[in-house]
From TrEMBL:
Family from the record: Belongs to the multicopper oxidase family.
Self-association and partners: Monomer.
The keyword Nucleotidyltransferase is assigned to this record: no
Entry-linked PANTHER family: BILIRUBIN OXIDASE (PTHR48267:SF1), CUPREDOXIN SUPERFAMILY PROTEIN (PTHR48267)
Keyword vocabulary terms for this entry: Metal-binding, Oxidoreductase
Residue stretches making up the Plastocyanin-like domain: 79-190, 365-476
Keyword Oxidoreductase tagged: yes
EC id: 1.16.3.4
The name this protein goes by in its record: Multicopper oxidase CueO
Region span, Disordered: 34-58
Low complexity composition bias: residue spans: 34-50
Length: 478
């Protein structure tokens, strides 16, 4: 459980909320000068000079082919990583490296991943955004004991999308993910592959997160407001060489608790997908907002830049995050179609539910609540018949305190309908599983529960909020 005093918690919530509230609408592009803004906390180890380290790209795991099934084996282990100059930071890893490998799956072809827990504590794995049976979802109490292995089988029955996997162990989700248990899981399908979008080396996953370090380079899991060092694929303000051509950029906000406001200075960016895959059509963007757990896919045409120029991905409050160094012009047969494919038709909703996320701050430690109750893994909060389409009114009940929350639903994607009666923002477009909810506001979402039977979680995806109780569960019944 997060070890925050009540005052630390209040300060953290207000600071994080303030950053998120700036970002709900489109803004003019901001130009951020290269520098060290936001990359070190007072009293911490020094960050590297900006843009001196190359951003790594996560390696793609090769599966073992077993008939119609792909098998992977991933150890969950303690390790070290060089994140800051001359220091080794203790971390948790999927595999040997802090930057977890990518699993690239195919629609309709199941995947089994054997995770071996080499930690000295329990953990588990949740495929965030995955439509999976309840026993494969990483229920908070369904854990892998130290020294044990667990097979997770994912059917991959959904359309192409960028998902991710992370720890979901009860009251340990935040700390485990913060220490490094986060990685990409990408589903591809033939329809998307035939569209001509950039592929191969020109399809680049970028995991964004924040961190705080002490003077020895250790990760500090404390006050979220002090996590001022931003990492892109595990590096602080790295550079990444690109050819002067189109790239597909898959962005993931893997921060345990935080919001990124992103601008790209020097090249146009076009959003092509959100959490659940492609939008109906590409959308030019001047800026993006990503809360914890969200994914956004872009196509950036560096062919419109002069070779030798530099393009900055920045957060106006956190500073430059990543610099793209544009190289020579090369052949480019990729394209961005004017239209992709329509989203699934919204069925008529037959039920409406209210969900309120809030805190109880009356005691010595904060307690997270959903509809006034803290999480109880033995309690079912909503019983839903399979095949039902519902509208959920999800409210941030902490308007007076100014806390920011976001909302994540397991099992299925949803569509954002509106925000407190106003139209949804560009950040809400497409199929979603995670959505930002500013203090005192309500987001109306619609979902169809046509997948599997069993118990699934829904919760605030600021993991420290969920760890102290801001989580509930639904049961899908025949």
């Amino acid at each position: 459980m997060p070890n925050l005093t009540r005052m630390q918690f209040l300060a953290a919530g207000t600071a994080v909320a303030g950053g998120g509230l700036l970002a709900l609408g489109e803004r003019e592009p901001a130009t951020a000068a290269a520098g060290t803004k936001g990359v070190a906390t007072a009293g911490s180890a020094a960050a590297p000079a900006p843009f001196t380290e190359r951003m790594p790209v996560p390696r793609v795991l090769e599966p073992e082919r077993d008939g119609g099934l792909d098998r992977y084996r991933i150890p969950i282990r303690p390790g070290t990583a060089q994140i800051l100059p001359g220091l080794q930071t203790p971390v948790y890893t999927y595999g040997p490296d802090f930057l977890a490998p990518v699993i690239r799956a195919r629609t309709g072809r199941p995947v089994t991943v054997t995770f071996a827990n080499l930690l000295d504590e329990v953990t588990n794995v949740h495929l965030h955004g995955g439509h999976v049976p309840a026993g494969m979802d990483g229920h908070p109490l369904d854990v892998i004991q130290p020294g044990a292995k667990r097979d997770y089988t994912y059917p991959n029955g959904q359309r192409a999308s960028t998902l991710w996997f992370h720890s979901h162990a009860h009251m340990m989700e935040g700390e485990h993910t913060y220490k490094g248990l986060h990685g990409f899981y990408i589903i591809e399908d033939p329809v998307e592959r035939g569209m001509g979008l950039p592929t191969g080396d020109y399809d680049v996953p970028i995991l964004l997160r924040d961190a705080q370090f002490d003077a020895a380079g250790n990760l500090v899991f404390g006050n979220p407001a002090l996590r001022t060092t931003v990492l892109a694929n595990g590096k602080v303000q790295p550079y990444f060489p690109v050819e002067a051509r189109k790239y597909r950029i898959r962005l993931l906000n893997a921060a345990v608790e935080g919001v990124f406001q992103l601008t790209l200075d020097g090249a146009p960016m076009v959003q092509i997908a959100s959490d659940g895959g492609l939008l109906p059509a590409p959308v030019p963007r001047t800026d993006l907002t990503m809360c914890s757990g969200e994914r956004v896919e872009l196509v950036v045409d560096f062919g419109r830049c002069e070779p030798g120029s530099q393009v900055l991905l920045s957060d106006p409050t956190r500073g430059p995050v990543l610099r793209f160094d544009v190289g020579p012009r090369t052949g480019d047969d990729s394209r961005v179609p004017d239209r992709f494919r329509p989203l699934p038709v919204l069925p008529r909703a037959t039920n409406t539910r209210d969900v309120v996320l809030s805190f109880d701050l009356s005691g010595p430690q904060p307690v997270g609540l959903v509809n006034g109750r803290p999480y109880d893994p033995n309690r079912v909060d909503f019983v839903i018949r399979r095949g039902t389409t519902e509208i959920w009114n999800v409210t941030n009940g902490d308007g007076a305190m100014g806390f920011l929350h976001d909302f994540h639903m397991h099992l299925t994607m949803f569509r954002v309908l509106d925000r407190t009666g106003a139209p949804m923002t560009p950040n809400d477009a497409g199929l979603k599983d995670t959505v930002l909810i500013p203090p005192g506001t309500t987001v109306r979402v619609q979902a169809t529960f046509d997948g599997f039977l069993g118990r699934y979680a829904y919760h605030c995806h600021f993991m420290e909020h969920a760890d102290v109780g801001m989580m509930a569960q639904m049961e899908i019944v025949p």
